[in-house]
Design brief:
- The chain is of the alpha/beta class.
- The strands form three sheets. The protein has an eight-stranded mixed β-barrel with strand order 8-9-11-12-13-14-15-16, surrounded by four helices. Strands 2-3-1-6-7 form a five-stranded mixed β-sheet, sandwiched between helices.
Length: 435
Amino acid sequence: MSSIEDDLTGLHNRRSFLALLRRHVGLANERKTNLALVVVDVDGFARLNAAHGYDFGDRALRHIAQQLHTMARTQDYAARIGDNRFALILPGVMNAGHAELAVQKLFRLFEVPFDGGNGRVRMTATVGVALCPLHATQAEFLLLQAEKSLELARATGQRWLFPPESGDDLGLSELWDLEIELDGAVQRGEMFLVYQPKLRLPDLVPIGAEALMRWRHRSRGLVSPGQFIPIAEQTGQIKRMTIWALNSALRHAGEWKLPHVPFGVAVNVPPELVGQDDLPDLVENALNLWATPDVQLVLEITERSLVMDPRHSFRILSRIRDMGVKISIDDFGTGYSCLAYFKDIPADELKIDRSFVSGMLIDATCADITSLIIDLAHRFGLHVVAEGVEDEETLEALRVRNCDVVQGHLFAKAMELGDFSRWLTDSGDALRRAV
């Protein structure tokens, strides 16, 4: 498979698409011609996966790719730029009407039902269109305009839209810049892990750590995870970054001087990976490379990971648990908590969301929810971690409620590898002196 092709559909991948868009927008400006950018988002694709399965969804995406390939002229380019988002670059269109004709042709192709073998569905899509030079004269802003048009069409219940008004190029999207620069950040050594300790109650012995991704950009400095993680998820880079984090965390943990055995190292797995059939293989590969007897791998997933297709997700997580890996449900209580799946849930741990923990002393509802989560988890044989513990009073409130593990700035902030290794050594020495 070429490095410019999307593995699933064979269309141009996002990286190739971005390069093509820049080149052809530049040519359109130079030659004084028009270019249309069409961004296509498949409606209700998550529901389609939930109803028919991920294999069916993959076949549907390949079908859409074939439809786009069918309608594209020789000089056009079709790309897959997100999980269920596609794009067409149409150089040399005559005017806005010409672009509209292309969109209508696309909708006619979508009207033909797709037969995936175990189901027949009629798929729909929402489309955003932007023209160069009418709506933007730079590639970055043109893509931004097309995607804004798509979101506006979806919000107003329309099938497609041009930008509501001409934009200007005075400020390029900062998110676009970050997206471009994020690709390759791991290879350039800009991505690194920090570790926040997890301590056992009641004696506060360190029994594990959560690994968290950080990005130190060569010119911007530290980029917030709140900025780059959503970009990575949207652009399909999150899988590659998660594999890197998984292998790095296990490698680091194997070199620590551990104050407690086994010592858990937790890695966050995003929702879109939990339902992928190759996740157990990725975990097994990392374990084969880096696992040591004294280190316990923990995968932290959110409740959202289990919602769309619980049966499928449970099967995948059960396979991972069979390898000796523990599963932790992160941010519990903020998502789609459902008692119905508790009797079968393939998990070992619940993490109470920090919003409940931080509110325990001032809000009776938060205190009650925290108590209920701890009791519920214990009834189903699960351990409970409270994150976001920042003061002694909250710690004591968790201790009297029989919480199992605590994590927060009261004990230590997330530390870079060298600092965390020294913190662990100091903790182990203090424990030995206490004995």
